Amino acid sequence: MVGGIQIRQVRTERGVLSPAQVLAALRPADDDHQPLSAAVMIENTHNWHGGVAWSLQDLQRLSGTARSNGLAVHLDGARVFNAAIATGADVRAIAQYSDTVSFCLSKGLCCPVGSILCGPAETIRQARRWRKMLGGGMRQAGVLAAAGLVALETMAGRLADDHQNARSLAEGLAEVAGIDCDLSRVQTNIVYFRLKNMDAARFVAACCEQGLLGGAYGTDLVRFVTHYGISPADIQRALAICREALRG
User: Which end of the chain has less Cβ packing within 10 Å, N or C?
Assistant: First the structure.
């Protein structure tokens, strides 16, 4: 509402938007009854599809289609460092296909708070103006910036540990009766699974009582996320708690 933007969502199978879907979603420029298409926003990794990472080939194809039709590309890369680890690509290689990129210093990088917007100098200058108009900004940002530098310099490489823990968790859950977990979507540190015979909220509440935290979505969908400070032993303990919660 504030930006005067009309969003057109596109449903995907695994969170990866194809060139054909971009073309199908374009508004006709000669129809005064419709808004003009200006940008494509993608998410990498895609949260709701289980932390699925885009391949460089898919990013290249999307970027080429968007730019050939006069569209800017914005990458919501809240977990883009996870995407880099999962695909074996440098973060710069991922970012090259976007005009602007945002990513979180928190989440997997473990900074207490903070996100970064990257882009051309003029775009960032305009972003600062918009931030000021909307009441954003912090004068004493140096303390947070220092923590952000530590996160960038020391935490990106260890994300592979989170991915391994998530994989171990997912594989263990897939063997539990009453749980349906799509292992093909477990590429980073997010694990989604469905409960066959128990309400998700009740399951999460039972896990919480034993110190295992997760999220319930709808009646049967549960999300766990692995992060810094979780060990392989913790994963085995989490699996035991899940089995116990299902019996309750």
Answer: N
Where does residue 88 fall: left (phi above 0), alpha (psi -120 to 50 degrees), or beta otherwise? left
SS3 177: coil
Looking at the fold, whether 40 and 122 belong to one and the same domain comes out as: yes
Are residue 24 and residue 129 in the same domain, yes or no?
Answer: yes
- Amino acid of residue 34: Q
* Domain coverage including residue 211: 159-247
Mean pLDDT of 116-133: 95
Taking residue 242's Cβ as centre, other Cβ atoms within 10 Å add up to 26
Residue 7 lies in a domain: no
Q: What pLDDT band is residue 138 in, cutting at 50, 70 and 90?
A: confident
Q: Using N-to-C axis directions, what is the helix angle for 232-247 and 200-209, rounded to 10°? A: 120
Closest CA to 74 of 48, 109, 38: 38
> Which H helix or E strand runs over 66?
helix 56-68
Token pair 């140096």 is found at: 142
Nearest of 67, 60, 20 to residue 40 by alpha carbon: 67
Identify whether 45 is preceded by a cis peptide bond (ω within 30 of 0): yes
Residues 210-231 pLDDT 10s? 999 999 999 999 999 999 999 9
Is residue 188 reached through a cis peptide bond, with omega within 30 degrees of 0 on the bond before it?
A: no
Establish how many alpha carbons lie within 13 A of residue 215's alpha carbon, considering only the half-sphere containing its beta carbon. Answer: 10
End of a domain among 154, 173, 201? 154
